[in-house]
């Protein structure tokens, strides 16, 4: 009896030791006995590991899953290849060999850690030899790029590519993946403030704006005022403005303008009936007219930014913090994941400046990227279009008692962003007496600044004329300058010229400014204009005027919220008369 007890005790001890020595594993081995039935779970013990799998549709060893082929089964198909009965489990994905030579393959369920960061608690991964394979969905969840190589029909992709190192810890059942930042998917951050504002249907109502001024000069009272009366409804806004220069002596104020405006937020456009002002371009003149105008209006969508905002890009080896400094002032802070990243629409002040991006990882290591920028309304973003099409009757003497409408005109202006650094502009003017067409370009030439230039050609009763213009602008935080030069032939005609008036022969302007930190600023300007005067009716003589002016200004801080400004101006006007003898 004691011998039997000792034998039983020895057997129990050996059994406990054996069970403790066996390591549990969730791996699944593709080994299925012959004649296995559907839905049966088979387990085996090989080298101390417990491996269990479920009977699949096919039992070819060493295969990878592929997309199922949706083909109708043949009438003579064997029973084991027919679709399972209703209520059965869905068909598993079929497998394909990794290579012409079948190799050992198994499925494992593990946690995944990428570059020290847990990205998946329970993932199904294929282990083939020393390599590991994952699905496209898993690559996307782990923010890893898919390998470029792929065979038709293959559902699994190799993790070991472009230097990626994989290590399986069988004790913890964790797959450790070590990858360079270039293997990760890029992150895109947009710093533009989202605008949830939506246009609401307008109710009907009235409003009145007024600006009244009462003055006393040498005992004489004067009353002047500007008034605007408006009516708004679903059809738009109807407004009219009146001006009274001296209401004490004249009871009837002058009408300035009347217009009906309707905005279209979905198109970022506006339609105007009545009095309006023509669209500006670098070489054209703005005129008052009464008629119709269809033009773009970006302000109908407050969150839309039509001009170019700076963009930055970088690469983080670990999850990091990105600080954005614009002209040494921090304007934004963002968190980025491992891998390449790009930051779009960095908010900046209009003009030129410098952006500094500081990337700090979890260990405190920093990398600094510095980039110059230029942001100005003259440069439209790529693909953005700004336009204005207008027609009506020109208005002479705006704001005077002699104000009247005269000849008919039509004009069109179009600006198109070719790229973030190049914008083209076109303008055409059509009148009965002449027609004018011009084309120009705005280009961001770093670090110089914004460079503009173009040409306009007119054709009319006085012949053909040409206008050329060029401009350079540099607007930085502490220093800025601008230089403009425009020249036109005597026969050139355009909107804004009075009957018989000739354009300026040459017009040049130069200005330079410098900021004295927080203490103030100084600036100097020069203007030189050689104007052609109108010919006399018999065109036997004409006069020309040369206008030159030098201006300077300075502003100094004298208190926390007080400044002292000083300005000077020196003007020189020279008249000359020449005679034209006709034979």
How are the elements arranged and paired?
Blueprint: H1 2-21, E1 28-29, E2 41-46, E3 49-54, E4 64-66, E5 94-96, E6 105-114, E7 117-128, E8 131-135, H2 136-141, E9 156-158, E10 165-169, E11 174-178, E12 187-190, E13 205-217, E14 220-233, E15 236-244, E16 254-264, E17 269-277, E18 288-296, E19 312-316, E20 320-326, E21 329-336, E22 339-344, E23 351-361, E24 366-375, E25 385-396, E26 404-419, E27 422-431, E28 434-445, E29 449-460, E30 463-475, E31 479-488, E32 506-515, E33 520-532, E34 541-559, E35 562-579
Explain the overall architecture:
By secondary structure, this protein is mainly beta. Among the domains are: 60 residues; 68 residues, Sandwich (Immunoglobulin-like). It has two helices and 35 strands. The chain has a 17-stranded antiparallel beta sheet, with no helix packed on it. Strands 1, 6, 7, 8, 9, 10 and 11 form a seven-stranded mixed beta sheet that branches. The longest helix is centred in the first third of the chain and has 20 residues. The N and C termini lie far apart (154 Å).
Proportion of helical residues: under 10%
* Secondary-structure content class: mainly beta
Named CATH topology of one domain: Immunoglobulin-like
Classify the beta-strand content into a percent band. over 45%
CATH class categorisation of one domain: Mainly Beta
Count of DSSP H/I helices: 2
How far the N terminus sits from the C terminus, by CA atoms, comes to: 154 Å
Total beta-strand segments: 35
What general outline do the C-alpha atoms trace? Answer: elongated
User: What kind of sheet is the major sheet?
Assistant: 17 strands, antiparallel
Q: Could you tell me the mean pLDDT? A: 79
CATH architecture of one domain: Sandwich
Uncertain residue segments: 17-102, 578-583
Q: Cα-atom Rg, whole angstroms?
A: 40 Å
CATH superfamily of one domain: Outer membrane usher protein
């Amino acid at each position: 009896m004691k011998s039997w007890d000792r034998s039983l005790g020895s057997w129990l001890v050996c059994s406990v030791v054996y069970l403790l020595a066996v390591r549990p594993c969730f791996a699944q081995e593709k080994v299925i006995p012959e004649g296995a039935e559907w839905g049966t779970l088979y387990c085996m013990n090989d080298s101390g590991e417990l491996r269990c799998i479920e009977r699949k549709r096919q039992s070819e060893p060493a295969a990878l899953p592929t997309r199922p082929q949706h083909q109708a089964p043949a009438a003579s198909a064997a029973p084991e290849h027919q679709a399972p009965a209703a209520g059965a489990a869905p068909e598993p994905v079929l497998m394909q060999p990794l290579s012409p030579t079948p190799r050992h393959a198994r499925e494992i369920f593990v946690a995944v850690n990428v570059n020290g960061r847990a990205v998946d608690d329970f993932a199904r991964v294929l282990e083939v030899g020393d390599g590991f394979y994952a699905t496209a969905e898993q690559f996307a969840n782990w923010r890893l790029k898919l390998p470029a190589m792929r065979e038709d029909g293959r559902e699994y992709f190799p993790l070991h590519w472009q230097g990626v190192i994989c290590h399986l810890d069988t004790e913890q059942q964790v797959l450790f993946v070590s990858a360079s930042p270039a293997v990760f998917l890029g992150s895109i951050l947009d710093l533009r403030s989202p605008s949830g504002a939506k246009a609401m249907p307008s109710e009907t109502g009235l409003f009145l704006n007024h600006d009244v001024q009462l003055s006393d000069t040498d005992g004489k009272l004067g009353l002047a005022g500007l008034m605007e009366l408006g009516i708004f409804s679903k059809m738009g806004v109807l407004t009219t403005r009146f001006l009274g220069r001296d209401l004490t002596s004249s009871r009837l104020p002058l009408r300035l303008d009347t217009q009906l405006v309707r905005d279209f937020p979905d198109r970022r456009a506006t339609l105007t009936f009545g009095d309006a002002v023509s669209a500006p371009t670098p070489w054209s003149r703005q005129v008052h007219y009464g008629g119709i105008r269809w033009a773009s209006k970006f302000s109908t969508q407050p969150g839309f930014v039509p001009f170019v905002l700076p963009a930055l890009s970088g690469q983080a080896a670990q999850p990091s913090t990105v600080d954005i400094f614009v002209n040494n002032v921090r304007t934004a802070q963002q968190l980025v994941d491992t891998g390449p990243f790009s930051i779009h629409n960095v908010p900046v002040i209009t003009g030129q400046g410098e952006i500094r991006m500081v990337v700090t990882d979890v260990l405190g290591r920093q990398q600094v990227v510095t980039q110059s920028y230029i942001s100005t309304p003259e440069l439209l973003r790529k693909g953005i279009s700004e336009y204005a099409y207008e027609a009506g009757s020109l208005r002479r003497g705006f704001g005077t008692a002699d104000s009247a409408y005269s000849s008919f005109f039509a004009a069109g202006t179009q600006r198109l962003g070719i790229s973030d650094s190049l914008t083209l502009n076109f303008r055409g003017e059509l009148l009965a007496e002449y027609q004018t067409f011009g084309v120009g370009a705005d280009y961001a030439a770093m670090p110089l600044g914004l460079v503009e230039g173009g040409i306009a050609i007119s054709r009319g009763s006085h012949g053909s004329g040409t206008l050329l213009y060029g401009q350079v602008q540099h607007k930085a935080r502490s220093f800025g300058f601008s230089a403009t030069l425009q020249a036109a032939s005597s026969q050139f005609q355009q909107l804004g010229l009075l009957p018989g008036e000739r354009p300026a022969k040459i017009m040049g302007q130069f200005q330079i400014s410098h900021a004295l930190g927080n203490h103030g600023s100084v600036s100097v300007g020069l203007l030189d204009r050689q104007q052609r005067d109108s010919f006399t009716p018999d065109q036997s003589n004409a006069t020309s005027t040369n206008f030159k002016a030098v201006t300077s200004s300075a502003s100094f801080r004298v208190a926390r919220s007080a400044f002292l400004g000083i300005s000077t101006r020196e003007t020189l006007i020279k008249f000359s008369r020449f005679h034209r003898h006709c034979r």
